[in-house]
Amino acid sequence: MNPLLKVEHLSYAYHSAGGETCALSDLSFQVEKGEFIAIVGPSGCGKSTLLSLISGLLLPEKGDILLDGKPVSQSRAAVGYMLQKDHLLEWRTIYQNAVLGLEIQHRLTEKNLLRVEQMLEDYGLATFKNARPSQLSGGMRQRAALIRTLAPNPALLLLDEPFSALDYLTRISVCDDIYKILKKQKKTAVMVTHDLSEAISVADRIIILSSRPAAIRKILPVRLSLEERTPLLSRSAPEFKEYFNLIWKELK
């Protein structure tokens, strides 16, 4: 089976009047369908730049990014991008925010709208569909943002520090909820995070990047001896501390 995402010898630099700043250097990896990949690395190493390239917002200077076997710009497979902040529009209701992507893409079909209604029900937001974003807690807003991202049914989901704006307890709870949602829908996801514990708790594999210009130091498969894996339960796995120490040493 071909990987959903294939990154081959990817390099990228920012150019300004002051010169060139190399952000990424010769990155190669692939993501299989249904996988949850976490990317960690030092602050400023180029993790968000990598997501922007995968999403097609930036174009590679060198190398290739293939989505379902074709360059991102030519692939029919959709990419969903969930940012650090929820960016919900206050003048729209939660339901209107949830269908915003469909509205922009002119895909407000009965089937898609029913799917959004079902997600609102499944994820505990049905009774808040007519509320404004300011009336919701941070965790509920993130669930609404996820529904908006999933509404167009993307093949690949990119998550850029999606829980960083939440307090610690809410962060763990929402991470647990979103992990279950993505696994239930069998979504393929790539998540950037500074939180090593978060990466270990959700990822099938962790890509560890070096300082800028980012190169891949190690790709680490995560195998935890749990009958049922969730982010919350993963933190109590006997191997958890070992993975944390290993990643910490690589980053140092």
UniProtKB/TrEMBL annotation:
UniProt keyword terms in alphabetical order: ATP-binding, Nucleotide-binding, Transport
Domain ABC transporter: 5-236
Cross-referenced SMART domains: AAA
Taxonomic superkingdom: Bacteria
Key word Membrane present: no
The keyword Nucleotide-binding appears for this protein: yes
A GO MF term: ATP binding
One Pfam family of this chain: ABC_tran
PANTHER family tied to this protein: ABC TRANSPORTER ATP-BINDING PROTEIN, TAURINE IMPORT ATP-BINDING PROTEIN-RELATED
Protein name stated in the entry: ATP-binding cassette domain-containing protein
Source organism per UniProt: Candidatus Merdiplasma excrementigallinarum
